[in-house]
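User: I'm putting together notes for a lab meeting next week and I want to include a structural view of one of the chains we've been expressing. I don't have a solved structure, so I'd like a prediction I can at least talk through. The sequence is below, exactly as it appears in our construct file.
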Amino acid sequence: MTRYHLVPDATLSLRDTGTPMGARILAEGLELMLELGLEAFTFKKLADHVGSTEVTVYHYFANKQRLLQYYFQLYWLWLKTHCEQEGRSLKDPCARLHGDIKALCGNWPKDAMAAQLDPATLRQLVVREGSKSFLHKNVDTDNQLKLFKPYKDLCAHIAIELKACSPRMKSPRSFATTLVEMAHSLEFAMHHLPALTELSEKRDRKKLAEFLIDLSDRYLDRK
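Assistant: Thanks for the context. Below is the predicted structure for the 223-residue chain, given as structure tokens.
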């Protein structure tokens, strides 16, 4: 299968993850982290899962926070690449924006190209563990290391499309970040905190996308 080859920041891993063992650690680590959650996930459990030693896992990643950030970078890299590729044939910036919002909500074509890891599984991890990649005391240091650049680049892409739809728009970056965050936090809410959103009634990603598209159109004075 043809896939995008996306490369997260080299500082996140300690050695090339393209080796057979590196690929196993990434693939099985993703499933295990999603199953257990970041707090219960440990490198010892991952090592037992892949039939290796804890030391071997530490040869690839310094800690589970860096592994989590690796997954997040890979997801944001994939999502921005997907949005750009899907929008190439669309001349209308607002049509591109609507397509981007659908993609943010996980509504992807069945034939969408994948990455080294399954984007749907990466998205589940982002939805469930999202804020943990940056809500910690070392966030400023990580930001200086540009570990959030793929996320910022995706938000910048959305902001460019918003500005193209409405050139006089005053806060495209703020609204772009709002869209990206809501596409993921509202999905979490509709499954786990249902009182926070009417979307919990059907738990439908298409309805989530419709809500955010309508919100965007209203914000852009298109309705």
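A couple of points you could mention at the meeting. The chain has ten helices and no strands. Residues 64-87 form the longest helix (24 residues).

User: Perfect, that's what I needed.
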